[in-house]
Structure formats: C-alpha cells, structure tokens
Amino acid sequence: MADVYRRCGCRDEHGKTLGNRCPKLENPKHGAWAFYLAAGTDPITGKRRQVRQGGFASKQAAQKARNEAAVKLDRGTYVAPTRELYGAYILRWLDHHQKTGRGLKASTMVNYRRYVELDIAPSPLGSVPLSEVRRFHVNAFIKQLLDDGRGATTVRRIVAVVQGSLRSAAEENLIDHNPATGLKLPAVSKKELEVWEPAQVGEFLDVAAGHRLSALFELAMFTGMRRGELLGLRWTDVDMTRRAVTVRNNRIQAGTEIVEAAPKTRAGRRTVDLDDRSSGALVRWRLAQQEEAADWGDAYTETGYVFTYEDGQPLRPQYASRLFDKLRVEAGLPKMTFHGQRHENASLMIAAGTDIAIVSKRLGHSSVSITGDICSHLIGSASRHAAESTAALVPVKSAGAHTLHTQEAER
After folding, report:
1. CA angle 317, 321, 325 (to 5 degrees)
2. Domain Tyr recombinase spans what residues (predicted)?
3. What one-character DSSP code corresponds to residue 236?
4. Is 387 strand, coil or helix?
5. Three-class DSSP category at 290
6. Which neighbouring-strand residues pair with 272?
7. Rounded to two decimals, what is the model's pTM?
8. Domain covering 198-378: architecture
C-alpha cells in the first residue's frame, strides 16, 4: 500500500466499506486523502504499530501531515489523534480535577464548573477535536468572549481554566503540545483600593453598634480577618486571657453550599492579637449570646460558633455581606464590600506607622511582597511620615542651617 492514498466511505451491497476500491474514485473530487506510516514494533506486545490518518482535502496536505508525523515518530513525540471533542475532554478533566482536589477551594471549583459548562464546552472551541485544538482556536474563543461583553478579568479567569486543561492534556500525552500558550489576553486595569477615612469607619461602627452583631464588624475592622475566617471562628479559638483569636477554620460560600476547611496556607493559620475595643466587643457579645440561648431554651442549638443567628446556628456568608451593605447604606457611606474591611484594617495599621511585615503577618499573607503589592498606594503618606520622623532624630548644627533647609524645602 502506498503511504499516501485516496479512499472514500462508500459501501458495497454487504455494507462493507469500499475504501480505495470504490469505482467512483476515478472522479478526483470523490473521497479524501489519507496516509499510512509504519511505526515499528510495540515493545510490550511485539506487534507491528501503524499510524493512519485521513480526511485530507488534497494529496499535498496528506503528504505534509505524513512527513510531520514521521518526524515526530523519530523524535518520540508523536501522539495519535483522538476523536474526542475538547468540550467532552474538559468536562472529564474537570470531574477528575474535582475528585483529586489539587488544592483548590470549593468556591473556586464552583466557578470552574460554571465556566466549563456555560462558556467553554458549548462554544465553537468545545466542538474542536482535542488533538486539533490550536492557538488560533483559543484566541478566537477569547475574542468571542470579549465581543459578547465579558470583562477582562472574567475572560482571564475563563481562559485560565482552558490553559489548565490543555496543560494537563499535554502532560498526559493526549496532545503533542500545549496550544494555550502565547495567547492574546486582554489587559486588566489595576484599580487602587478605595478605603474610608478613620472618621467614616467610626460612623459605620456607630451605626453597627445598634445591631446585635456589632462585634462582627468590630473584629472585621480591627483584625483584618477574612469573612470566612470570622464566620468560621469558634469560641474555642478565642483566648480572652491572652486577648487573641486563632484562625483555624474558614467558612465560605461555594455556590448554594456552605463549605468549611482549614486555611490553605501556613500563613493563614495564625493568631491575631486583639485591641481593647475588640476584646470588649467580644465580651459583650458573649454575654448577649448567652442571654439569647436562655431565651430560646431547648430550641437553641449550641454550635460553638462565635457569630450566630438568634437560634445558635452559624451565619451564612451571604447574610453577613448583605448585613454589612445594609448598615453601610444606613450610615450614608461610600460603597465598599465586606472584604473591604480587610483592606480598611491594613490602611489603618499603615497610617498608624505599623511595620509592613507585621501588617502582612496579621492579615495572613504568605509573603510581605503580596501585602506591598496590595497596599502600595496606602503606604505613601506613612512613608513620608517615616522620612520626616527619621530626619527629626538627627539634630542640626545650627538654627541657620535648619532655616536654610526649611526655605529650600518650601521652594
């Protein structure tokens, strides 16, 4: 058999494929071109291996594909093409990814599944055979997302899932290379964190003081703990003698479910010291919670959580966020999310002259560089204050020199 040949899918009266025996092949437009390659002997079974691939529109295309396959066979990089569509593969990959965990948060996996099922699998990219996916397919997918009005951040998150799946396919030798590299990703404009002034924080906490859960917001503002860390806090994690809380649990929203897990990083598992105001708020809240338990009697559920509903059940994350926004609107303050209180705490610490390393440790960042990147625009005034304080430690030789320096500074 020639290594490049033409064949068709016509069948005889017995239903068998005619292949290259079809008389209609006399018509040069009938059928399609294919190639055949001998691929040596299987080292395990001892049987001869063959590489066959068809569906080419011309003899030249088949010859080119044959030559490319021959080079890959010689290099040991050849991967047999598969009929599995990329949309089917990424769904299978996601199921495996979820079973193995791979260190992803439950809420992240929920987003992954939404992106795969609603955006990736139903798209034209999803209908391309896995082994035929190329960079231009992925770039076309990115362009379509942008044309549909999806934001740059969302597009990058969706494409990150595509990149992860194709990277896994390449690692498993399902494809001979990862086509999701060197992509044309949209730029994301970095927004500076907008925080309230200290007086505005005071206004918010004054309004929150009228709510039974005011201690929740006191701790959020003055400890910088994440929402999940606050809602996952148990009384066994609170040491009122040392005036500190230990972060051991994270209570987060994953779709419609509530999931609890230990902090992902060693830095996240930390002990946070409490100030007098936060300690007092926790003591008052503990007494109020005990009164609620007495009022509810047998209907009360002792769950051990610090922040609960009136019946003792732990708070749902979405409830805490909605309550924060309700109190913010009531106080007439600029828009901020519940998570914004974490940045507010960082802002207050920096403004108070706290060392960035201590800020990073209290927030539970894995490195000081992360804290610096997030809070870089907040450090400006504190940096100037530090410069002035440092210079003030060194006495000037004379009043004249001080005057000269002052005049030069004023210019």
Report:
1. 170
2. 191-388
3. G
4. helix
5. helix
6. 245
7. 0.63
8. Orthogonal Bundle (1.10)
At 85, give phi and psi (nearest 5°). Answer: -75, 150
* Stretch (H or E) spanning 251: strand 250-254
Domain over 86-171 is classified CATH 1.10.150.130: yes
pLDDT at 303 over 80: yes
What is the CB-side half-sphere exposure of residue 379 using CA atoms within 13 A? 13
| Closest by Cα among 128, 136, 122 to 183 | 136
DSSP 240-305: TTTTEEE---EEEEETTEEEEE--SSTTTS-EEE--HHHHHHHHHHHHHHHHHHHHHGGG-----B
State whether residue 273 is helix, strand or coil.
strand
Structure tokens at 132: 């035929």
Tokens of 79: 């991967």
What integer pLDDT is reported at residue 404 of this predicted model?
46
Which among 299, 310, 294 has a CA at the least distance from the CA of 211? 310
Segment 219-276, tens digit of pLDDT:
999 999 999 999 999 999 999 999 999 999 999 887 778 888 888 788 889 999 999 9
pLDDT band of residue 177 (cuts 50, 70, 90) is confident
Give domain limits for the chain: 4-75, 86-171, 198-378
Contacts of 380 (CB under 8 A, 6+ apart): none
